[in-house]
Amino acid sequence: MDERAQSQERELRALMTAGLDGDAIAYHRLLERLTGHLRAYYRNRFARIGHGAAQAEDLLQEVLIAVHTHRHTHDLSQPFTPWIHAIARYKFLDYLRRTKYSFKDMRAVWICTGSCRRFR
């Protein structure tokens, strides 16, 4: 992990920890930071499958609700970034299932799980 990613992980983890301890300002900052990252993540993936920004925004909201609802399940001894990426990835896969979008129709969607794999 490069220095920028480590710095981001430390910041997000600190904000999550403070938010879990009742710091509303830190929690709000966490959600703002996640919104920017997740928006870019989803817009990229939806553009690759020919879907618009509206679907990306809907999924972004689903992830933020899931984070809020399940934030107590995050193990503070574990890195935060993989936890949030897992939620985002599974929400995307759920969207594909809901819309009956076929994996074979996906030309260049990358789904990262430690190492990236390309579905064709």
What does it look like?
It is built from 4 helices and 2 strands; from the N terminus they run ααααββ. By secondary structure, the chain is mainly alpha-helical. The chain has one domain (3-118): Rna Polymerase Sigma Factor, Chain: A (Orthogonal Bundle), CATH 1.10.1740. A two-stranded antiparallel ribbon has the order 1-2. The radius of gyration is 15 Å and the shape is globular. The chain starts with a helix and ends with a strand. Residues 110-120 have low confidence and may be disordered.
Spell out the key features of this protein.
4 helices, two-stranded antiparallel ribbon, 120 residues, Rna Polymerase Sigma Factor, Chain: A, disordered C terminus, mainly alpha, globular
In short, what is this structure?
The protein is mainly alpha-helical and 120 residues long. The chain is 67% helix and 7% strand.
Let me know the CATH homologous superfamily. RNA polymerase sigma factor, region 2, helix turn helix motif
Quaternary structure: single chain
What is the CATH architecture annotation? Orthogonal Bundle
Shape: globular
List the helices and strands and how they pair.
Elements: H1 3-20, H2 24-48, H3 53-70, H4 80-98, E1 110-113, E2 115-118
Antiparallel strand pairs: 1-2
Helix pairs in contact: 1-2, 2-3, 3-4
